[in-house]
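Reopening: Transcriptional regulator still failing for me.
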Amino acid sequence: MGSGGQAGDRPVIRRHPHHPAARAADLLGEPWTPLLVGSLAAGELTLGQLALRVPGLSRPSLGHRLRRLTTAGIISQAATVAGSRPPADLRSYRLTPAGREFLLLLDQAGAWSRRWLPPPSAREVCPEHLLASLCHGLDPATAGPAALPARFTVIDTPVRSTWWLVADGGAVTPRRTAPDNPVAVSVEATATALIDIWLGRSRCLDELRRHTIRFTGPRAAVRTVAAWLTAGRYHAARPAPAR
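Support: Ran it again with your exact input. Result attached.
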């Protein structure tokens, strides 16, 4: 276990603390843990970069979650030059060996969920979080800057919503307000189509044939955005349907 955390930051073992699987499940099931640990899978990130990858989580709550994961030994704060104290947004975090092994557990839980649990409905999903997951890990400098900003309109949620994907702090992130730059690509899609694409159950071409997604813009930019949507980890191994 990590050290240095306050008592209030210790992982809460709610029931059956003697049971190893129950202890792991309590940590696994804490809100935001999968997103934070998954965000660090590719390498070290600053607090500011993590904040962009977990939209909807306030800075105080983000700091609290990071302290809890540090205390649990899942992540560690990167060393700084002796005597220096960088601003909070520039403090870096990385996975520990225990965190990298914990990431494998998250992947296994995700694979089980995709195989045996029904996908969420459009009413259950937050479009902002879904879009953040779809563009997770994209570097705007190399992924195709000519395709940004991209406007996404989700048409089957209780309230029709529009979001813009923009380059921000070395990441591609969704925003609710329109950027100053002209839109390169417009996408209209059902949340159900985006969910199925994210989970690896479908491809953009499949959804185009079903008329559940539509792209507008220059062909090269459209192809870039379509490639983004199917670049997630779940497309590496599309699951067999549950029986």
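The two ends are 39 Å apart (CA to CA). If you still see a failure, please send the error message rather than a screenshot.
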